[in-house]
Amino acid sequence: MKRLKFLGLAMITITMLVLAACGNESSTGDSETENKNENASAELEGSVVIDGSGTVYPFMSKMAENYMTNEQENVSVEVSRAGTSAGFKKFLVEENGTDFNDASRQIKDEEAATAEDLGIDVKELKVALDGLTFVVNPENDWAEELTQQEVIDIFLASAGKKNWSDVRSDFPNEPIKTYGPNENHGTYEFFWENILDEQDLVAEANLQQEYSTLVDLVSKDKNAIAFFGYGYAVNNKDKVKIVKVDFGNGPVEPNLDTISEEGDYAPFTRPVFTYLNVNMAKEKAQVLDYAIYTMKNAADVASETGFAPLPEEELNAVVTELEGLK
Q1: Residue 93: CA count within 13 A, CB half-sphere
Q2: CA-to-CA distance for 167 and 136, rounded, in angstroms?
Q3: pLDDT in tens, the chain (326 residues)
Q4: Residue 83 falls in which region: left (phi positive, over 0), alpha (psi -120 to 50) or beta
Q5: Which helix (H) or strand (E) holds 171?
Q6: How far apart are the first and last CA of the chain?
Q7: Are 272 and 53 in contact (CB under 8 A)?
Q8: The pairing of beta strand 145-147 with beta strand 244-246
Q9: Which of 37, 95, 103, 202 sees the fewest Cβ atoms within 10 Å?
């Protein structure tokens, strides 16, 4: 009798253990399902549309490539390069505007007013530093170093520097051929406003929409000199020669060490930006996610694409602000 009672208790104990195990398995299964659901919710899809600065284009196209490859393969990030000013016209529209506008200058008062009129909440994201760089033809062996004032005078209409010999008497008596980006570009506006102090550019200047065209033109013209962002210059050193600029303490070559708002190349250094449509960031999760990813990875991508990176603490502060939009 005692034996039967013992067997009965044993069976009850085994049954309870089996049920407990099943319960744990079910709980684990539920947990795994929840984790899968959480992962699925982190997988985004849709598009992110970016236009604007040709100078910022290499930075942003690399960022987009990294994001689609390593972060969100179901999100399509489209990056174009109409130029800063032309890009703002696509960004600041009532419907179907771009999500970001890359800019090699800050937004103008009239552009900010347009945004306010349209009810578009715009957030400025400073992503890196660029050095306005002057390049000459590889065969040019006389203008490898120029003073800040000589560079300005070459492009300034009122200076009257027609030939290289007008810049220095020992330079060749050959006509100077000046090149640069056209008025669609923030680089042109930065140069005209900050370097030429809004004075007239030489009438003969050949201004182009595409930076690749400028590189090609300089590479074929021994008397050429052009200005554009450092990234295009350093990535085309086989076609153009970077000019060292003397700001008063000896010639300085732009590079990732000298390009700084307080460094040796400071007079020709400028910040570059992307502007976020906050309305779209709140409406489309992939837009906000891309903004956060950009600021988290800005320093690395800047260095890879010819820009001087910003301090990590400055970038991290912006990431915190963006995460607050969630």
Answers
A1: 13
A2: 15
A3: 433 333 343 333 333 433 344 444 444 444 444 443 333 347 999 999 999 999 999 999 999 999 999 999 999 999 999 999 999 999 999 999 999 999 999 999 999 999 999 999 999 999 999 999 999 999 999 999 999 999 999 999 999 999 999 999 999 999 999 999 999 999 999 999 999 999 999 999 999 999 999 999 999 999 999 999 999 999 999 999 999 999 999 999 999 999 999 999 999 999 999 999 999 999 999 999 999 999 999 999 999 999 999 999 999 999 999 999 99
A4: left
A5: none
A6: 69
A7: yes
A8: parallel
A9: 95
Residues in the chain: 326
Nearest alpha-carbon partner for 279 in 3, 94, 30, 16 = 94
294 closest CA partner among 270, 318, 260, 269: 318
Coil, strand or helix: which one is 312? helix
